[in-house]
Amino acid sequence: MSASPHHGPGAALIIRVLGVFALSTTILLVKLCGERGIHLTEIMFWRQFTTVPIVGVWLWRTNSLGTLRTDRFPAHLRRAVFGMMAMTFVFGSAQMLPLAEAQTLAFTGPFFATLLAMIILKEKVGWWRWTGLLLGFGGILIIARPGHSDIPPLGVAIGLTAAFLVALLSIMIKDLNRTDRPLAIVFWFSLLSSPMVGAFLPFTMTAHDAESWWLLLALGITGAIGQILLTLALRYGAVSAVIVMDYSGLIWATLYGWLVWDQVPTRSTWFGAPLIIAAGLIIAWREHRLARTRAALSVAP
């Protein structure tokens, strides 16, 4: 079943900003759960499992259960496998690093997308995108400061791996959006991934007090909302355009870190983050220009 979007790029940007806010709140809750001794596998399970009834009930109430039909089950299964790998590294990075630093490393996703295009798709990368790559690499070095930083190197490595996997996921989700509805993509991801991580619960799950259960429930709800909104944004707008809004996450990460843990970004982060953001914007702008050029050539006589 083909599904064509009915909203413009402006709506996609707004949806993306709201999704980033919801997921930034989810990452805050992940860090709080980790501090209470809740194992990462249990956090991931409740993050995913909570989404299944939320989306299922919504589709049932709106008589839209038929939208779950798909001819691309293998693609959904691949997305679930890579999605859980990405979630493991994203949540692990949030638990090991201050929120602002973890969020800044997540901004390196466009660099990995460009490198993947060079290596796998054999795309020619011009000097604009090379400039973005070099700026981004410089920003990473400034933040990490190998051998001279309080930020754990393992946390930096986990954060960069998370960004790489998220870049892969953006391509997969954009491809699924061509044929399947956003809520169907979210539903199948949660349904298929829940058993994957649930298999570890007998070995990692522990007893919790009421506050911990409320944190897990809130984590699942905000995660579901954020995932739906981010998937919806990729349906209504190009990846290179909407991904720019992800930089608003640094605002929420810095604010949460300051309010909850009295943490402010390090001096190296203040210098490195603008380089990474500038690099991402350069790459996004260049991708947007290339997409417009390709579109113009495709309709030219």
In short:
77% of the residues lie in helices and 0% in strands. With 301 residues, the chain is mainly alpha-helical.
Note the main attributes of this structure.
301 residues, mainly alpha, globular, disordered N terminus
Question: Can you walk me through this structure?
Answer:
The protein has helices at 9-35, 40-49, 51-61, 73-96, 99-106, 109-119, 127-144, 153-176, 182-198, 201-204, 210-236, 239-242, 249-261, 267-299. The protein is mainly α and 301 residues long.
Order of helices and strands: HHHHHHHHHHHHHH
Q: Name the helicity range.
A: over 70%
Average pLDDT score: 81
What coarse outline follows from CA principal-axis ratios? globular
Task: Note the topology.
Layout: H1 9-35, H2 40-49, H3 51-61, H4 73-96, H5 99-106, H6 109-119, H7 127-144, H8 153-176, H9 182-198, H10 201-204, H11 210-236, H12 239-242, H13 249-261, H14 267-299
Helix pairs in contact: 1-11, 1-13, 2-9, 2-11, 3-9, 4-5, 4-8, 4-9, 5-8, 5-13, 5-14, 6-8, 6-14, 7-14, 9-11
